[in-house]
Amino acid sequence: MIRSITVVAIVFFSLSIRAAEFSVVEATIPEMQAAMEEGRVTSRDLVTAYLVRLGLYENTINAAISVNTKALEIADALDRERTAGKVRGLLHGIPVAIKDNIHTTDMPTTAGTLALDGFVPPYDATLVQNLRDGGAVIIAKTVLTEMANWMVLGMANNYSAVGGFAFNPYDTRRDPRPGLNDGRGVLPTGSSSSGAGTAASLWAANIGTETTTSIIGPASAAMLAAVKPTVGRISRWGVIPVTYDQDTAGPMTRTVTDAAILLGVLEGKAPDPNDSETQRCKPPSDNDYTKYLKVGALKGARIGVPRAWFIDSHTLPESEAPSGGIPEDQKAMMDEVVAILRVQGATVIDPADVPSAVAKAWEDNILVRGSCSRKPSFKGDDAGCSVVLKYGFKRDFTDWIASLGSAAPVQDLTELREWNIANASLGTLKYAQRSLDISDEQDLNSDEDRRRYETDRANDVRLAGAEGADAVLQRHDLDALVFAGSRGSSFLAKAGYPSVTVPFGLVANGAGFPDGFVPKPAPLGVTFGGTACSEPRLLALAYAFEQASKRRRPPEF
Q1: Is 246 inside a domain boundary?
Q2: Helices and strands: H and E segment counts in the chain
Q3: Least crowded by CB within 10 Å, which of 67, 268, 379, 522?
Q4: The domain that contains 41 carries what CATH number?
Q5: Is residue 217 part of a domain?
Q6: For 397-449, how does the pLDDT look when each residue is reduced to its tens digit (9 = 90+)?
Q7: Active-site annotation holder among 66, 160, 191, 490
Q8: What pTM value is reported for the model?
Q9: Domain membership flag for residue 223
Q10: Residue 74 located in a structural domain
Q11: For this structure, is 193 an active site residue?
């Protein structure tokens, strides 16, 4: 395994002439597949070309936390299969990367935390086995915010003790602003997953994981398409958790078509016996989501625009001042989105406000009761927030450790926290570990703690689902809701509902920069969200919108 990429000198001269004639930059999965079928390129050629790009650009963006030293060997085996007439599917020979909280038995899985540095799990994640069965070459692990951002609120996006800081390829400079000049990038990467390597064509696509915003957010921030699936559509077995109540993996790609291809492979052909939630949604025939991708899918569609709080500021219960809303340039972008939807034949209901977002009673409003991670929120100071994440993390981390048997690097959450404290000189606590702390004080054997969790979980699901997304979809007979970037992600995540994002706009990146420093524009995607198991319809709408707008632009180095 190599963390600091120096492969360019090793592989550059092995790059074949035919690989040089086929550029992997912005190449889609179907384009690469066609080139292999026609004999213009091999999987080895693709892996080699991506390794060259890693050598050229990795030190600039730090997209990979580790690289698979067996990638060329795997590609060679898949090329031999193709020569023998065996092609496993549309991913056969395609190099992809996965987030470093997803188990692989041929690479470490660290979640970015030093206590797991070098840890190789005893089993592959189910989604990894599905990728391997589909013929993918897992070329690298991507950087992530440590413990998928369950260390402490306020940790820099894509910082971890193992991997350091990663950077958004659309502006790779460090943030110069006081209080933010700790080494982080000036342009946020979106959340705990990273789309940097896919945006920069260091691999064909990558797999992220999301609890609240961590697929849609980083995809939007890197001008990518992505699917945050219904929780349970993709098995969570072998993924280091935040909480399985809301966790899911999903594809991050440069096109909606690539995302649809990957979603079918990741889902697998049958429910996973290790994850009962994989029975929640039924896969399409042959796991083929591409059959839903129709250019005219927006014609006759009904799409709602939640404005109160999601676009326009709104005063929440027991508050004196309005909150929420988005800046004026983002509002203008959403106005353009609505215009495109209408030109394409969609009926746009604007506004289509979410009932639980505009509810006047505190107990009925989805937006007032955030996660207890927003502030330290220890027991006695957590009456106004949801304990779902902090309780769920301890419960599911405990189960994850148990699944490792004798290979477990720590025995429980307490040991992990104590190891971090004992090794603080190594950099384990750069941003502290308050999220781990508030989780560890949860008592899994306490009826009181369990009842509090069950109450909060029921409220989250009710207000996000039946009285939230489902209510507005049914009231206006909608196919989907549309949001700017990840603006609706935290709300939809509480019910485990899906979203699909599409590259679209460039907007202002923050304020307060010193004189002479001009920030580059920030990418911002358009996201279609819906009810459980509605991925086929969301993909259709997203694809039609993508084809009508075609706003994806690669980063410039």
Answers
A1: yes
A2: 19, 13
A3: 379
A4: 3.90.1300.10
A5: yes
A6: 999 999 999 999 999 999 999 999 999 999 999 999 999 999 999 999 999 99
A7: 191
A8: 0.96
A9: yes
A10: yes
A11: no
